[in-house]
Amino acid sequence: MKRLILTIVALSLCFFAKAQTVIDTLSTDALNELLIEQVERLAEDSDEDVDYEELLEQYIFLVENPVNLNSDDIIKLLELHLINVFQYEELQKYRRYYGDFLFLEELEMVEGFDEQTLAIIAPIVQIGKDNSRDKITLSKMARYGKHQVVGRYEQILEHQQGYDPISDSALLAKPNSRFLGSPQRYQLKYTYNYRNRIRAGFVLEKDPGEMFFTDHVSDTIKALLGDKYHRGFDFIGFHLYAKDLGIVKAAVLGDYQLSFGQGLTMWTGMNFGKIETGSSVMKQGRGITPKSSASEYSFMRGTAVTLGGGPFRGTVFYSNRKIDANITETDTLEAAEYVSSLQETGYHRTIGELLDRYAIRQQVVGGHLAYAVSHFEVGYTLHHTWLSAKLQLSPSNYNQFYFQGTQLTNQGIDFKYVKGKFAFFGEGAMSFNTDSTTLLSTSTGATALSRFAGLLGMTVKPTGYLNFTIFYHDYGKAYQNLFSNAFCEGSRNQGQRGVYLGVEVAPAPYWNLLAYADHFRFTWLTSQAYAPSWGHDYYLRLSHSFNRRTTAYLQIRSKTKMKNSTDGLVFSHYPIFYTKNSVRFNINYGFANGLVFSNKAEYAHYRNDDGSNSQGFFICQDVSYKPENKPFSLTFRYALFDTKDYDSRVYAYENDVLYSFSVPALYGKGMRVYLLGKWKPFNSLTLYTRIGSIIYTDRDEISSGLTLIEGKHKTDLKVEAIWKL
Amino acid sequence: MKKPLLLIVFITLTFSLFAHDFVNPIGGRAAAMGGCSVASRGLWAMQNNPAGMAYLDKFSLGLYYENRWLLPETAYKSAALAVPTKFGCLGLSFNQFGSSKYSENKFGLAYAKDFGPYLQIGLQLDYLLISLGNEYGRQSAVTFELGIQSQVTEKLRLGTYIFNPVSFKLEQSINQEKPPIVFRFGAAYQFTKDFVGLCEVEKNTDHEGVSLRGGLEYEVLKNFYLRAGAQTNPGLLSFGLGYEIRFARIDVAAQLHQILGASVQIGMIFSIGKRA
């Protein structure tokens, strides 16, 4: 009651003063901009192509299914790093003191919720009754459940060399010289959601080059492929998920992701890498989450259940699925005996890729037990992995401590303590690999200690608008884990250690400064550097929102690492330093009629210690027209890029059809244009089309090998239909 | 594997030994905050920016020891004595880097005066002495360092400092060596009563490029400080703790260099007298 009066007083004050509440003055696309920045940073940091769809799946889910501020679902905001751990605590405290939220504007009164946070979360929260204890009946499920179907088609319009016609004999001589299928990508996805408590769905996908129903190959190729011959959708996934059914906190059947603690022992799927919320690198395990994306690597397929009671929460999981692997030795009767690598791309386009498809079986069984009291949480994770064939990497110095063999056990303890202005977090983990190959490498210098990995961090918030983080990680060179995804430099939670120091300040309203310094060291060789190496990463970002429709940021980054010298005169590899510096400025500004302009400029400088260096420049103008109360919108980009080589490449996020994300690496000289259109003919149907092109001025052929295009331009087309019921 | 690493360590060390090291930021507080010191106040300001000791109102004695890279040969020792008077604050200081085989010494006589909240000025006259062991003798020079600080607003203080602006030659040096000119500029911002953020930039003519520094200090409990900082060129991350009682304070710090490892710093200050 007290709170109700308080709220009414506060609100009426706002109205009488004819002032807008903060919520009304917020930038409309803050969440989107946050994700764009995160995704761009991730693209810069990862060497491989990242499947953003899988990464952003949960954010999109939130946009469509806002979190009820009066339910325990608010932890989702923390899990997805939209609020920090202190804000989460304040939110809990507010609810404890004043009871349920009645108005969204009340959020402004929660301590630590600044304009930026409000702008990010306002569109994805709602006020409702906590219905997590309601009975679920079939009739309710039929009435209130939401169905959604998404169909998408994608294609590079230019002819690529991999689709050239070829005779059987030539193909047999060079089996990987052609794609067997057609150049289209198709995806069909269905999801059902009943109040976030029951979810189900399936996804079908065919990548470019994979064989669809309409594709044919000759009998000789068919014979060569044997039982690997496959047409139709290459990837099929489904999930059935329920949560909050009495003591069953969550249960899943089908495809799912697991994440516990700080991700050192078990964290499938992707995460944003270094910075999570503000300066903090603290992660929040999500437990079991259903997987609805078409990502083909790093997920679980099977079943998992979380039971909870009092301060305890226990999860057991089992996964059994076939994964891609490169077979080196095959027994005629049995399946593969040895595999030389596990394939992560999910592509099955050529004969070679098809032969690797689902070559071995991976089984994972394990559990997690967590104990949580008011400020403290501790968890224990244990899991065991079997491969149906022995993994034997081609021997090299840098990979001698990598996982090899058939069985691997991992266990770890994680903890979290959040009170007042302090948050402490950490995880310690170790791996057991009983196979002889590793015993061999143990004798070559991997001590028992090097099978351990640990991380420890502290985030402090001296005052509401300021926080800083000190973080240390040390992962042993023989710490092996197929599902580890904690803070690291590069992509491997193995053989590295480092110290991170980050600070975030909001020196004035609508201003935000984020800076970090990260020093890291690889304690063993990497595939890039044939000696232990080190480097550092400095980052600074200053952002400001001038008003509701105008936001800008300036980002400066300098990263130094080591890699083998490519100097031809040197007879042995030795690592040298290389540094990439970049400056980026971005501004978005809109007008009342629905027109939004956006500019981005980036300068990148790459320097190698052997003397070579290169520079890159990118500039773009985006125009989008999103009239209110009209069923359509249009987005257009014109960009120029000029970089000397791949080293000084520039990553630029592009607007895309819903549920799809592209952050192409642009290098060379040329321009990039695209046009994205959205049309909503009925309430239940939305159509998207995007056509984009890269036009090079410095080359006559694009890419190489199977994806070679003879010409100066590369055009991509995407069409998507979303049907909601 | 160890050997090339050792070699690198040796070479890097040798390089840093070529550069004179008279003006390393002194004090456990500065060391813990990435070397940020130009806008700081206190006894150690005598060595980092003499203007910062203008406000001192107690008779203070400070001792500082840095075990750089945990090698006794590269230790850095410092002592300072401040005597507040009616006309400003007077100080005596001594720094020594190195061992008996090679050492760099700086003897200083400092004076700082407070011209109201907007301006403090400090000056230190220095006698520099490089001792190259028995066979090679000694080199020496006389120079000075100058600094100003200004409390621009209640929360923001700026500082500028220059060491050896005229760059005198070292007497008896074979290659006409000169001590470096060092210029620092920086700010301290008091975000809240218990939280300070510092940043500064330093140019040392003996080093290529400039060094950027940032540091923060949080008073976790009353008189108990937690500090962290970062510095580029050379890249260092640093951490430290400080504790203050009525007549003494102790500050410890650790600086982590990526190649050379850790350095440990400890500083103590004893003060006698009443606050004026």
Could you write a compact summary of the structure shown?
Chain A has 725 residues and is mainly beta.
Q: How would you characterize this protein structure?
A:
The complex is a heterodimer of chains A (725) and B (276). Helices cover 14% and strands 45% of the residues of chain A. With 725 residues, chain A is mainly beta. Among the domains of chain A are: 2-130, no CATH class; 566-725, Porin (Beta Barrel), CATH 2.40.160.10. Chain A has a 24-stranded antiparallel β-barrel. Chain A has a two-stranded parallel sheet with strand order 1-2. In chain A, strands 27-28 form a two-stranded antiparallel sheet. In chain A, a hairpin with a 2-residue loop joins strand 9 and strand 10. In chain A, helix 2 packs across helix 6. Helices cover 11% and strands 54% of the residues of chain B. Chain B is built from four helices and 14 strands. The longest helix of chain B is centred in the first third of the chain and has 17 residues, at 2-18. Chain B is globular. The interface between A and B is medium-sized, with 21 and 23 residues.
Mean pLDDT of chain A: 86
Count of runs of 4 or more consecutive helical residues of chain B: 4
Q: What's the pLDDT, averaged over the residues of chain B? A: 85
Number of helices of chain A: 11
Content of β-strand of chain B: over 45%
Name the helix and strand elements of chain B from N-terminus to C-terminus, one letter apiece: HHHEEEEEHEEEEEEEEE
Helix percentage of chain A: 10-25%
The percent range for helix content of chain B is 10-25%
Taking the sheet with the most strands of chain B, its summary is: 14 strands, antiparallel, barrel
Shape of chain A: globular
Give the CATH topology of one domain in chain A. Porin
Distance between the termini of chain A: 39 Å
Q: Which word captures the global form of chain B? A: globular
Radius of gyration of chain B (Å):
18 Å
Q: Structural class per helix/strand content of chain A? A: mainly beta
Class inferred from helices and paired strands of chain B: mainly beta
